[in-house]
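Notebook, bench 3.
Goal today: get a predicted structure for Hemophore HasA from Pectobacterium aroidearum so we can plan the truncation constructs. The sequence was checked against the plasmid map this morning, with no discrepancies at the termini. Length recorded as 195 residues. Pasting the sequence as submitted so the record is complete.
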Amino acid sequence: MSLSIQYDTEFSSYSISQYLTEWASLFGDANHTNNNVTDSNSGGFYGGTSWNNGTQYALVSPNNDTSAFVAEGNLTYQFSNHVLYGQLDTLTFGDGLSGGTSTEYAIQEPQVTFSGLDLSSIVDSGREGVVHEVVYGLMSGQVQPLLDALTNAGIDINASLDSLSFATATSDAALSADTVVDVVGVAETADLLAA
């Protein structure tokens, strides 16, 4: 695993564990279980040859319609065993999800992206395969399988993102509360209007 992380500066002081735990608490459990499967909690594939495979799998939280993740690699879902398997290379977390059936998925406000994950499992691994455990875990609001995979690869999940040599900060183009904006004009106050 040659991991690299890109993160929004808002999360500089967060550890991997802190960020993922906070994300999961907002995302919640999509409740994608027997007799509870709906379009809103199933997510979707892009870039494949049929409905059950692709280069991307994505899901927006049915609990808040905002929190989302995109998994990238070479992913296949076997319906008969309900197993996701293949190669998982990149995970992006954030708010808002665009794209889908005919266009590539994208997180509208990306927060953290893990690239170079190099996680793989075969269909015979069943639900114990790391790809299934990680992605189904995320669908269920559980990040421990991903944290375990990172820990097993020697990644310090408790170090702040800004202290990791393989992590890079990005800045959101939107104005933040700390942004100074020069304004030209005349202030209108009640005193001026009463004159």
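The chain is about 20% helix and 30% strand. The chain has one domain: 4-194.
Flagging this for group meeting.
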